């Protein structure tokens, strides 16, 4: 059957994801949902003008939840940049707004009888992913957040820059919350055939150290945010990678926000991704310190989720 | 040697073009120039974060004109959306700003000893293309505006929608100014193996007529502009198509802004595009009415260009 | 749902089509059917070795007709090169062999309950397409031969070479049988914004004439055949283009072998291609001479088809 | 400047590599060299017929060594399948033939003043790479064999099949000769975030063991070879990956045949690949057993190379 993908929220992130999907010819039909009808109509026509000069043809549908019933994947990309921008160091500043959206969008998605995989990009990613799963009642394995896939990419970018190698040749994960409590699990990071710690100890890169890389990795995010008040290209590429792994049933390993039973919460942790969503979760041998950080990050996400759901029922 | 492309101006349009270039892996090195250093650093890092999850590797260089000396193609994409937005029906509202930019950028591009093909997306496209050519003193054939390539795409989009066919199966051109005086040369438009006028006369599409298609084609542009205050996806795809024709030395036929000797001005008119820019210009058999419209459009462009250059020397 | 494509026959043509599908990441699952189990296992493993270094993941299934039940598109690519090679000027030399295959494959395809679009590459293309449709009892619009799409491509290649332009900038069709009775409908061929006949009359290309282009176009096929005893790259690209138009429901115009009611036979004639196969057939204004050639070509196809089906029931 | 790639030898492997390059639009100009002029002309026309329906335009040049002077990369893909097929277990059966070719081609390549990166696919890969370097006198870092990049891909394919994951999620290398003395360096192989030995010990994959994976990995090669008497798709994807890393100056880590100083020979060993070829060689922490195997493999390559060069000067 025809491939069909839906995107909830077509702001900076959603429309960039849509653009990349259209350019790469990933889908036959793309359903775009956004409350700002004028902006959505504008993007839709702009995409159609683009298609005249592209290699693939993509059918575009606007603001029709019922069209999501047979979608393969739906991507939630709504957000509120303005609010986030006012308190940029806190991803939860956006929360009141994305929470409102998810509470509106999730029941409508459920009502559409959508049975595919839901990918959540909206922030705070782990909490919104959790709420989406609860409201839609989709199996936990079918609701995935991009989570620390972007943080891991930033760690790879910073590591690669320090060692002058291709970021795709860096192995490893950032874990936990897609937010301030996330951390690089350095025990998992490998470059040039060895653990990065060993490489740095060997002394060939005197100007590189983990703290500086960690700092560059995180500062990168801030530079992007302060420079243009939103981020879209990095997150779009991460979302597309996850999307393709689902569509192709690739069983590719990616660190994403998925339900982690030992700590009873969604959080960024590597898993095998396929057509059914999470096929299998990795079981990392983390250091004691990393396990502590993961628990702290999990606690933070759980508190915020509980708080959110509590307010909800008050 | 390495492929190298430069982009002057990384606002909505420039950064979208850069993104598409990076996603499609068109170049080895991409030089981005923009006076807003914070925004540029933000985009640059965001692109680097994206590359971790893309198929190609692209080296990015920021704000270094000297790096353009051996570029294959430079794309001028600067503009001033805010000003354009205040008087959206007039593409010349942006002119004082883009004129200032071109007068600053063109001498620096010339000073870099750039000898490749210059593609101009900045508006008013035909005038800015002309000024760029005059200041850089590059051969006229090496300075090309996207011109009515976008208008032609919009005509194809509207025609295709009316006949329920793929826009890539519509043949024909919009000619003249990339602005209000442009017109669809209906004598050149063919669908389903015949001139569109004949197809419509045959009666199989009772709800389609040229005026409506023309209106939809132009309204499209306004809907995009009013809906999001800029356009980026359609123009990006048009620029990429032109870019690839140049890089591949494809000798592909495209309606672009190029110097049209009979009317002594740059204007949108089909030409054969290759590594040296304009390889050959078509010689259309236009109707009397279309020839008149082309002359009127040319006169408008020439007046505006003269005016601009006059003010320049005052 | 997952995209699924099947290929019947994995010789030179079938495996090249499979390769291009895998490289471009067109499908999630690819079902390959071939009686030569050793060759098929070899290709399958070779494709899997390739996928380690490709951008997309494609699941491969071998020799399972039942897996075709929910395929979107099945491509018939079987043939017998050796036999064809013995009498290369006659595409019907292959017929006894492809006829045997189609009589074996078509009932099994029917039994699989396949309900998608069937694309026939096997030669003699128009006759095999017709037999496939009769045996499978799929709607006529869902059974399409690549037909003169390849001949049209060769005409474009030869025309482009004569005029030093990109073959993608040549418009027009070769019509009729994908075989010796096919002909270029020169009345439909346009380059540089005009009918090719007019362009040649205007005298800018003194060394180009229709006869020579026609000859180069046809000789090309022979050079390929005599040089390597089969053709695969040109036909693969043609099949992929048709395949994408179906999958994307693009409504793209392509000259393919489809049922032409006025002459009651499958033959090469332009049509609009979409998810349901043939969406609409063009109605060309051919010259008297072209209409005669089309009828002659149709008569030839009809005779051969009748003959084939007669032998079948004896 | 224009991207230019050359291919020496257009048999099964060379023409498949050419096809993938053309489909992916990797280059602007492709120079194909082969003594069988009829086969080459056939492939060339077949590629041109294909380009009518592809997204990119590639200029093709046949049998012109002088056109290689400014090529970015030249790929040696000549071989003699028939001879190899007679004694398939011995990659050196092909040697008398490829040796003859390299002794003819290398001086002509040198005479062309080619200064780019030379990628050698021809077998026996490590020996031919070494001879090419000696004759062309190109810097050692600019002459690279695909070597165990293909063996590593096969190991990943077999490992991935055993664990039901994407082969792109398997990390690790096969080292040494691209031939019978090669071995999987299991100490480098990691899956699911851990060394594969640990994963297998943990017991979640009772049916997977290293010996079986190793066997499947190697048998795969034989199944391909016995099934179709040559391999082309896997090696083409490997060559393209290496090619892109060079063109993009990606600094990507890949196990390829490169000069390994400690054992004074070309052999398969991971390195960082960029525009200048080998940018940096990894320094693996191999086990004692693996170091022994690497030395044995190196000795074998050195003996064969010495023997070859000796015969040469007799």
From TrEMBL, chains A, B, C, D:
The lineage of its organism: Bacteria, Bacillati, Bacillota, Bacilli, Lactobacillales. Residues 148-310 form the Lactate/malate dehydrogenase C-terminal domain. NAD(+) binds at residues 9-14, 34, 121-123. GO terms for molecular function: L-lactate dehydrogenase (NAD+) activity. It comes from Oenococcus oeni AWRIB429. Keywords: NAD, Oxidoreductase. GO terms for biological process: lactate metabolic process. Residues 4-145 form the Lactate/malate dehydrogenase N-terminal domain. It comes from the Bacteria. InterPro entries: L-lactate/malate_DH (IPR001557), L-lactate_DH_AS (IPR018177), Lactate/malate_DH_C (IPR022383), Lactate/malate_DH_N (IPR001236), Lactate_DH/Glyco_Ohase_4_C (IPR015955), NAD(P)-bd_dom_sf (IPR036291). Belongs to the LDH/MDH superfamily. LDH family. The active site is at residue 178. This is L-lactate dehydrogenase. It holds the Pfam family Ldh_1_C.
